[in-house]
Amino acid sequence: MGLLRVLLGDQLTPGVSALAGLDPAADVVLLAEVMGECAYVPHHKQKLVLVLSAMRHFAAALEARGVRVDYVRLDDPANTGTLSGEVARAVARHRPAGIVATFPGEYRVLADMRGWEEATGLPVDIRDDDRFLADLGWFQRWAQGRKQLRMEFFYREMRRETGLLMEGEAPAGGAWNYDAENRRRLDRGVVPPAPRRFAPDAVTREVMALVEARFPANFGTLEEFAWPVTAAEAEAALADFIAHRLPRFGDYQDAMASGQPVLFHALVSTSMNLGLLSPRACCEAAEAAWRAGAAPLNAVEGFIRQILGWREYVRGIYWLKMPAYAGLNALEATRPLPWSWWGGETRMNCIRQTVRQTRDMAYAHHIQRLMVTGNFALLAGLDPAAVNEWYLAVYADAYEWVELPNTHGMVLHADGGVMASKPYAASGAYINRMSDYCRGCAYDVKQSTGPDACPFNALYWDFLARHAQRFAGNNRLAMPLQTLRKMPAEKLAGLRAQAAAFLAGPELRPDP
């Protein structure tokens, strides 16, 4: 009598802990496509295709190795639609001696797993997910007793722990962080190389038809689907980035440009978050390029910081602070999500560009998420629960462990400063400085009031005025708050009236 080894859709790694010690002759691996996971938020069609296709390819790879796989498809008439229901059915089919699983990425799934033992009468071994570079116990020990949980200090510890970009006890190049060198607008004449993309094979095309049939109303299109769905494709995508885009990634990682959705970004987060790529392997490949003289240090450090720093850090914050973290709303924001975020009409070119790109690719890079849609959500006071659901729904790389802290903490400051020392609020000047979006906009970024004024400008000052008392002691906001205090009352009143009129207008229409 063997074990039932349960794998989730984002645990598609041959060495995942749930498969450690696998006995191919006795054990059975369960992978189940269930409606509960496909529909708990209205996932982008490409996200659904990506996960289901990757699951099917991974199951086939296991079977090719002689592993017994029990694979339940979404359209199986007997499918219960829940993970717990499919575990119970698998137990009845195979009568295992116990159940083995890997720690999940979402709190609600962990709660489900913790009920399997009582539901089946079998012992359930939930093993640590050792695919991350910082285990949760280590993070909790690092966080204990600290008044501020800043990513930069965590990142430095992780550099020391892993030895990545280190020269003995010192950081490579003498500095821990080269972010100040990574803020260039895309220069005229610079044409980023097209990323490696992957045409859907027969398995993926079958899943695409299934998703179109089962989720016809979901956001997004499938015409441009080209994500890696196997480890081999993911490794090819990483190699393409290292060779062709990493050398200039650092300079332009914060840039935005019309018709250039990828620029010099890696497009590997979907593969890492599914388990098709190792985060350590991604970091080591980038470091090797620097040591070989093929990529500059500012580019390699910036890329490694996103993985070793941010990716590991937000996972630690998520599991340290959940479940209460999800309900925080420090700025008391309540406004509903505007329909323009689901593809509705908007005169704001930056929002239009980002939403259209998201619709077509299930992708936007971190500055578009933080400083376009995110900045707008912060300034307009959009409800954190609605914003979190949107980010979780529309991006192919979104899982709650990584999406929630980034959105709640970095984007919305809804956690009151757990992650960020200040809210990432900006006027239209930031978007104008880092992109060409303002050139094609119906609004004028140089105006703050009037019918053609860029909405970000009045919204920015209205946001500071609303929360001036809350942030009075925040040193990082001292300069704009001083400007606010010195602003003539009539001017401030005009800005706030402009913001109020915009928030009551058609751009903030909550439904079609």
From TrEMBL:
Record's InterPro entries?
Crypto/Photolyase_FAD-like_sf (IPR036134), PhrB-like (IPR007357), Rossmann-like_a/b/a_fold (IPR014729), UV-DNA_repair_photolyase (IPR052551)
Q: Which domain of life is it from?
A: Bacteria
Stretches of the chain forming a coiled coil according to its record: none
One Pfam annotation, family name?
A: DPRP
Q: Which PANTHER family match?
A: SLR1343 PROTEIN
What is the protein name for this chain? Answer: Cryptochrome/photolyase family protein
